[in-house]
Every structure is written in C-alpha cells, then in structure tokens.
Design a protein that fits this description.
single chain, alpha+beta, five-stranded mixed sheet, 7 strands, globular
C-alpha cells in the first residue's frame, strides 16, 4: 500500500488558510506531521465561522470534532470547541435514536418474512467508523427485492409511516400515487421515501441501488450474491460487501455531483478499516459496471483529502489523464467553497455535468442524456396522472416539455435586472 505521489502535496493548490487547516485536520489520522501543521495554522488568524459553515454543509462537523479533540488547550477558541462538542453530542443522540428505530424496523421485516438489507449512512457509521457518532446521516435506507416492495410499502403504512414524494408528484391532494403513476414511478425511480408520524425519522425503501436514468445497472444477482454479515446498529445482519460498497459510494457521489466531502471520508474510512479488500475484484467489477472513472475519482479525492493509502497502480497510471485532472481540479476548488448558485443550462435540462464527464464510454453518455430527456420526472407526474392516454407516447413528448421548461428559465434569467 502506497500513497499516490500525485496527490501528496496539494496544500499549495488551496488558496485559503482555512482550507489548508481543514485539509490538515482531514489528513491528521494518516499523517502525524499534520498535527504540527494544525497547531501552526490554528495559532494564527482564522475564520472559524467559515470552517463551521463548510464542515456543516459537508456533514463533517462531528468528524472534525474528533480530529480536533486531541489538540492542547488554547489553540482553538473555547466557544468554537463548545459548538463542535455540542454538535457532536447532538449527532450522537440522533444516531442512537435512529439505531433504535433501525432495530425495530429490521425486526418488522424479519417478522414479515422480508429480507431487507441496510444501506449507506447507518452501515458506514456502524461498520467502518471507529466512533459511530463521527458519521452524520439523516435517514435510514433499506433494500428489498422488487417482488417484496408492495408488502414492504404496506408494512410502513401500518407502522404509521406516510409516503413522501417530490414536489409535484401527487395531484389534487392525493395521499398516494395512482395505479398508472405507480407503474411509471417504479420504472424510473429506485426508492420510496417514508416519514414517521412524529416527523423525526425518514426511511428510504429501495428496490434497486440507482434510479433507472443512470446507465449503470446493479443486477439483482450481483447485489444479492455480494452480501456479507456485519454488525449494523448493534445487530447482526447482511449488507453489501466491502468491494461493492466502495463502488456504490463512488457512483453515488458522482450521481450527486460530489457535492459533499463526507463521501470521500467514507471511502477513506472504508479503505482504512479493511486490510483485505479484494482490489483485483474491485477493478474487475468496475470494468463490468462501466464505472472505472468514477472509482478512480473517488479514490483520488479520498487520497487528496485524507492521505489514505491505496494499492500501488490503483490510480497512479491514470493521474496524467487530463480530463480526470480537470474534474479533480474543479472539485478541489468547489468542495471548500459554497459559491452562489448560478443558472446552468445543462442543469436546467436535468443533466448532471460531473456524472456525465465521469461516464466511461460515449455510449453511456448518450444513454444518460437520452434517458434524462425521455424518462418521466417529478414535474411530469401531474400531467401523467390527469392524461393517462399520453403514457405510450410520453418519451416522444417529454423532450419538447423539457426544452420548453428550460427555455422559460433561460428567458427569465436573461431578462432579470442585475442587483444594485
């Protein structure tokens, strides 16, 4: 295991003192020399509010608390230390509440004879972080087989959970989807969202790992044959193998445009916690799923941010890839700032530019764009619910609807008066 030399000395690429401080904190577990740098930077002038805002936005305040807690007294303002500790304790309390509900829901599935696999936040917090309170997550995720989804959905309703949909999915004050909308929803989406009666718990019930709009497809055989037993939330249960989890993390982050640093820290913690990961199988699986660039980007960011070591040859031979380096540079700049959201015509069309750039092949890029134009999305469901006769021809009509929507937004943006 060696650290990629291309990403060892990146502090000079980060202009602000605060960003250098955050990098040193994130790297301190794997590089003891960073402790001296943290103290050196903390002793000077620092915008602590900026650091708090950035780490909060990336879901990393609890993790930052653990990295800073070994510092000797006097380096950080007392008020900032109290803020970090209070947030850490609050996150610990919420995680405990979610773990309790997780155990109850897992028992509900078992009693009903439904095999449910926990995913994402609670898995990472329980299985790969040394302290589960260091990982912030907002909901619980379960994966069930597609032929169990109807029964699972009814179970949640019986437990007092109500379905929650994106704005504009439901029409006319309806509490749930119509039969026609349900069919379309399952053909496009990959999960239902539920909210508990008290509003404190959100659960995502998955029947596949990704929305259908993305060309990467995790087959049922691949997923259900790559399970391992692990202790999650204090109970023994099956979850995705480490190798599949690593790929899923990288794909999920690309799908969401690498908008949060916590996914790179997840990758780092997963690699660090597992000495015997099958890297040859990971490479083979990445090639099979056509997500090699997404895997490399995830590992590159984890190496840059945390100093984690990865096997020799995993990313070095691609470090000179100019397109990957351009994406890496943009993400480095963006991850430590929260610039004002600007109108973007590609985003207006529903296209995630980062995901598009990280597709392995031109065919996958074409498929992704085609599906973005033709697959029904949230704002289409009111129309589909009222005019079910449009269903057979909707893939032909939707591109015109998307272009019209984007044209309206473009016109509105162009005719806005600048702020004085």
């Amino acid at each position: 295991m060696v650290m990629n030399q291309a990403f060892q000395n990146q502090n000079e690429k980060v202009p602000s003192r605060e960003a250098q401080f955050l990098l040193a904190c994130l790297r301190s577990r794997h590089d003891v020399e960073q402790h001296a740098l943290i103290q050196q930077l903390a002793s000077g002038e620092m915008d602590w509010d900026y650091i708090a805002r950035i780490m909060y936005a990336h879901g990393l305040l609890p993790f930052l608390h653990l990295r800073l807690s070994p510092l000797p007294p006097g380096y950080l303002p007392d008020s900032y230390l109290r803020y970090l500790k209070e947030h850490f304790l609050a996150n610990d309390l919420r995680n405990r509440m979610l773990r309790e509900e997780f155990r109850r829901l897992l028992g509900m599935f078992e009693q009903a004879g439904i095999r449910a696999i926990p995913l994402k936040g609670i898995v990472y917090a329980s299985a790969i972080y040394e302290n589960p309170a260091a990982r912030q997550f907002g909901d619980l995720d379960f994966l069930v087989r597609s032929n169990d989804i109807d029964r699972a959905k009814q179970l949640f309703k019986q437990q007092g959970y109500r379905p929650v949909y994106e704005q504009m999915v439901l029409s006319g004050g309806a509490a749930d989807l119509s039969a026609a909308q349900e069919s379309i929803y399952r053909s496009v989406y990959h999960e239902y969202e539920f909210q508990s009666q008290d509003g404190l718990v959100h659960v995502d019930l998955h029947w596949c790992l990704l929305p259908r709009v993305y060309p990467i497809e995790f087959s049922d055989d691949l997923v259900w044959q790559n399970l391992v037993e692990s202790t999650i939330g204090g109970v023994q249960t099956d979850t995705l193998s480490d190798e599949l989890n690593l790929l899923y993390l990288c794909i999920h982050a690309a799908k969401d445009g690498w908008s949060e640093l916590k996914w790179a820290v997840d990758i780092s913690e997963l690699v660090n916690a597992r000495d015997e990961m099958d890297w040859e199988y990971i490479r083979k699986l990445a090639k099979q799923l056509r997500c090699e660039k997404m895997l490399r980007m995830g590992l590159m960011l984890a190496v840059w941010l945390t100093g984690i070591s990865v096997p020799d040859g995993t990313i070095e031979h691609r470090a000179s890839d100019r397109s990957m380096q351009r994406i890496m540079n943009r993400l480095q700049q963006r991850l430590f700032s929260r610039p004002e959201r600007k109108f973007n015509r590609i985003s207006c069309l529903g296209i995630n530019k980062i995901y598009l750039q990280l597709c392995d092949s031109p065919i996958d890029k074409i498929v992704y764009v085609f599906r973005r134009f033709t697959y029904a999305q949230a704002r289409d469901f009111n129309v589909l619910g009222l005019t079910e006769s449009l269903l057979p021809v909707w893939p032909l009509l939707r591109p015109f609807r998307v272009i019209a929507h984007c044209a309206r937004k473009t016109f509105k943006e162009l005719t806005k008066f600048p702020h004085e």
